[in-house]
Task: structure prediction
Amino acid sequence: MSQPWHPRCGKRFSGAASVGHCAVCCETFVGVGTYDAHLSRDEAGKYIHLDPATTDPELKWWSDERGYWHKGPRLTAEQKAELFGTN
Result:
C-alpha cells in the first residue's frame, strides 16, 4: 500500500485516520488532539504553528522513530504490552 506524501516537503506519512500531516509546518502528528495542540492564534487571529521540538519539556511532546509527534507521557514496553496485548 502506498503512503500519502506531501509535495511541499516530500514527507510520506501513514494514511491512518489517527495521523495528521500539517501542510503549513510539515510536521506529522498522532491524534487529533495532538494535531490541534500544535495550533494557536495570535491577537490578530492568525494561526501560529508550535514547533514541538523547541517547546518546554513540561508539555511532554515527543517524536517516535518515524518522526511523528505525540503529546503526553511516553509509554514503556511493559505499558504497551499491557494496553495493547503485545509481547
In short: The mean pLDDT is 86. Strands lie at 19-21, 28-30, 39-41, 47-49, 61-63, 68-71.
